[in-house]
Amino acid sequence: MAALSREQLTTLLRGIGLRQVRLVSGVILFAYLVSHFLNHALGNISLEALAGGVYLHTAFWQFLPVAILFYTACLVHTALGIWALYERRQFRWKAIEPLQLLLGLSVPMLVIAHIIGVRLGHTLYGHEKLYPQVLFLYWVSAPYRIWLMLAVMTIAWVHGCIGLYLWLRMKAFFKRAAPFLLAAAVLIPTLAMLGFYQGGRNVVDNDSREWRAENLTTRQVGTREQQQTLDRISEYAVIFYLGLLALALLAKGARAINERRRGMVNLSYGNGRTVRVPKGLSVLEASLRNNVPHASVCGGRARCSTCRIRIIGDCSALPEPSQREAFVLGRVGASDPSIRLACQLRPATDLSFFQLFLPHTAADGHGSNPTRIGQERYLVNMFVDMRGSTKLAEKRLPFDTVFIVNRFLGAVSQAVLASGGMPNQFVGDGMLALFGLATSRQEACRQALRAAAMIAANVDELNRFLDHDLREPIRFGIGINGGEVIVGDIGYRDHMVFTALGDAVNVAARLQDMTKGLACEAVVSDEVRATAGLAADALPQHEVEIRGRNEPMIVRTVADARMLPALVNEEQSAAA
Ligand code: FES
Hints:
Shape: elongated
Number of helices: 20
Bound molecules: FE2/S2 (inorganic) cluster
Low-confidence stretches: 361-371
Radius of gyration: 30 Å
Largest sheet: 8 strands, mixed
Structural class: alpha+beta
């Protein structure tokens, strides 16, 4: 893997917030859960299979670096759960988010005794409690624990699945993977519980004086005193944990009182609507609390930027954007200080603003197609602009101008469609086209380059056709850039359009602008050139400044777009 550049590393680090840490620690814990459940499932075969499985399971999870990672993830995830209890004032999806938090917070309480009994017993006294010992405890000594174990298995699994769903539902592959993920989400815990049942029945059936003498030795399960000590530690741990939860709730209450004392702020939505909320609430929380529709595709997780607002008036009194907010705004090219994320901004003074994206029915929960709600994916974005259309309109009837512009856009759209792309938005005499909605990255880059060539050929033909009507041939500029964008429906009520948002789209528009200064037909980002597989020396290289970016960007200029297919085909046949 190529080493990350300084800019990439800085961008990566700036993008890490509490949510990313929660996600990574949650994924580690879920991986442990899957491994543990698959181990339980072996109980459907035999006690020997369970023993073989636990050998592999512990060999992996007790390997020192993995164990450190795992226990860190346990502590971090639990701490972040308690922090969320304190910090979260409003939930976007009324039922699923509080349920997710409640399930997550109850897991440590239910599992503490099991962890202390097995793991701490091993660390303090060298106990070797494996499946026979644990199953005996549950099925013979304290059968009520069976229900506790089944409850904690269900709760932890449902909590993990909800977390994964909220994370993955915006990914491009989710729709295709959903049936398989659902099957796994049902099958794995079912097999695990059946295995737990079969293992328990096996232990009960085998229970005899000899079996106990072999499996319940002091070395394996410890003495009565040791067990009492472990039980006491479990009780203290549960009390400590409940104390932390109580502390978080008390702090929450204290904060609410404090906020009331500190005063209220007025938030005006620029459409005549004003709400009055305590200081400290984010703008998105204020909207949700007052039932003001507010686009928030990622649910306030600072991932989508659809909650963006434009502040009206002076922004100097606003708190500085957090690292995460600045990162997301930077990604969508919003360097203007009046643009902020509503889910991150907590104003301490009255504020007037406009929502940049009006919530549509899907984001309000009435729509059902998740791919149209918003999805993160890699796309190649192409901006095409007709040069000199203002001059073209001089001394011409408006109808004639519209006719010529439409012929131009028709020629461009035909080229985009023929190359496998999608004409997406028409802005005056310009167009945004998207490539890669149903293809690989490499194919999307190649399609865009072929489309650029075809646009040039189509415009040539159009120029010949309009030869007698035009004083000068039609010229054009093309900007091509690839990157992660959010695709979804944007607009209002019946005026929704499917489009792409993000830094990669803005950069494509700027590259198109640069074709004038660089005196060429197209400017292509170096990333698209490399992903398409074109040789490093295939096109002239330039370093350009892009507004809103700290570091210059490497681009390639194409003086004559008609030569692009030859380059693409050459590389394709060389690779074949
Ligand atoms: S709701 Fe997604 S970034 Fe604010």
